[in-house]
Amino acid sequence: MTSDRSFPGAYPATRLRRPRQHAWSRRLVAENVLTPADLIWPLFVIPGENRVEDIASMPGVQRRSIDLIVAAAEEAVQLGIPAVALFPATPGDLKTDDAREAFNPENLVCRATRAIRSAKLDLGIILDVALDPYTSHGHDGLMRDGIILNDETNAALIKQSIVQAEAGADILAPSDMMDGRIGAIRAALESAGHSDTMLMSYAAKYASAFYGPFRDAVGSAGRLKGDKRTYQMDSANTAEALREVAFDLAEGADMVMVKPGMPYLDILRRVSETFAVPTFAYQVSGEYAMITAAAGNGWLDGDAAMLESLLAFKRAGASGVLTYFAPKAAKLLASA
Ligand code: PBG
Question: What is the CATH number of domain 34-335?
């Protein structure tokens, strides 16, 4: 423990302010650094062509038709962002109790993935595995009598995963929090010949009020009955997060994620220290909305608060961050 460690040096021989005097010396001794290579850009896909839609609760974030998703993917490459994560705003008439649109190889994210693929970019494509963009009730799993069914949902997630891997996704990111889904998906991918498809598990995903704007963005907010507390984690818990991560790694996750981000930096720190595997943080929609709203009101310096919040993830041990600020942050970092 830090408090037991004796640090050499005492004032005045040691003055910790000395290296803080200049921008160059601060840079020289910086323990952590944020670069565009740390960023993953989440994008929302809508039907149509040459269409953009604003999202009221996420000012500055837009839903885009597939042609403009490809343009955003090209922008990501120019900015040095290594990967994008695609989420569909599925039209309401395609949302059903059995979430069958999730297994449609022509659904929005599969078509967008193929479109990006054909542009031959050096860019990773991450697709969420969960049923909430496709269910009539907005839950991540299949539901019977108000109960979210674990094993039946896993069978559906396997079908969704295979369709997404076939479309060309590099990384599948199960965000549903069903038990056993990583192992089930890994086994199915192996036997379908997709042994190179990576799994980034939303391993420690908490039931959170900070997802509100995302649910507006994908159109599940008005539909959602009840909450997600029977499958997403209780925000009171830490030890349980370590068990979730341990299970997912044992089942074949290549990378893990902690979500939300800033309110859960303690979890990120413990996961990254305990397992020493690629660990990502998701700075979620509500975190984006808070910083953006305060900046919009002139209450915060938005750019500075954004970069400080992103560096905090690196300090807590993240390999990278999913953030709606990705293009803005990458531009600022390039000009710094
Ligand atoms: C759905 C999913 C959610 C997010 C990513 N995947 C929402 C939820 O679990 O309700 C949230 C992302 C964000 O808030 O930015 N499985």
Answer: 3.20.20.70
Classified as helix, coil or strand, 110 is helix
Distances (CA, A) of 128 to 56, 169, 284, 301: 23, 10, 14, 32
pLDDT, residue 1, reads 44
Count Cα neighbours of 127 within 13 Å in the Cβ-side half-sphere.
29
Instruction: Confirm whether 205 is a catalytic residue.
Output: yes
CB-side neighbour CA atoms (13 Å) of 153: 27
| Active-site choice (95, 159, 225, 259) | 259
Burial 173-191 (b: 16+ CB within 10 A, else e): bbbbbbeebbbbbbebbee
Report the candidate in 279, 274, 239, 278 with the shortest Cα–Cα distance to residue 259. Answer: 279
The closest residue, in CA terms, to atom 11 on ligand 1 is 211
Structure confidence by residue, pLDDT tens digits, 242-279 = 999 999 999 999 999 999 999 999 999 999 999 999 99
pLDDT of the residue at 225: 84
Indicate if 259 belongs to the active site: yes
The residue whose CA is least distant from atom 10 of ligand 1 is 211
Residues with CB under 6 A from ligand 1: 128, 130, 132, 140, 175-176, 211, 214-215, 228, 284-285
pLDDT in tens, 171-194: 999 999 999 999 999 999 999 999
Q: What is the pLDDT of residues 50-82, one digit of tens each?
A: 999 999 999 999 999 999 999 999 999 999 999
